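stage 2 :: seqdesign
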């Protein structure tokens, strides 16, 4: 039997986040320590963070932009976005005569 030495690590969490995390972990029957060890092992094995990282769920401005893009794609409203055949025309539209 192989025994691995362990070390104590302190993790600082916002109290509300900790409560929510604990509630979710309790519901699936694993401890907070087990969760963090699992995440750490996956990061080491995969050489990347083992889950998608999301910032704030789309805010109001982003939601509106997404709806507008979907409506244009579906043909519900006209797509008045300019299109370009070459980079020079695109740069001209961005910067005018300052290109």
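stage 2 :: out
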């Amino acid at each position: 039997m192989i025994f691995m030495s362990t070390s104590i690590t302190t993790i600082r969490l916002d109290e509300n986040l900790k409560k929510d995390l604990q509630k979710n972990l309790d519901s699936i029957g694993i401890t907070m320590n087990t969760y963090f060890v699992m995440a750490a092992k996956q990061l080491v094995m995969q050489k990347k963070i083992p889950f998608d990282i999301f910032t704030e769920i789309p805010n109001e401005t982003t939601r509106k932009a997404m709806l507008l893009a979907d409506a244009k794609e579906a043909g519900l409203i006209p797509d008045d976005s300019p299109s370009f055949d070459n980079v020079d025309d695109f740069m001209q539209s961005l910067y005018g005569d300052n290109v």
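stage 3 :: structure notes
- The helical segments are 15-28, 32-46, 60-73, 87-95.
- The chain has two domains: 1-52, 60-98.
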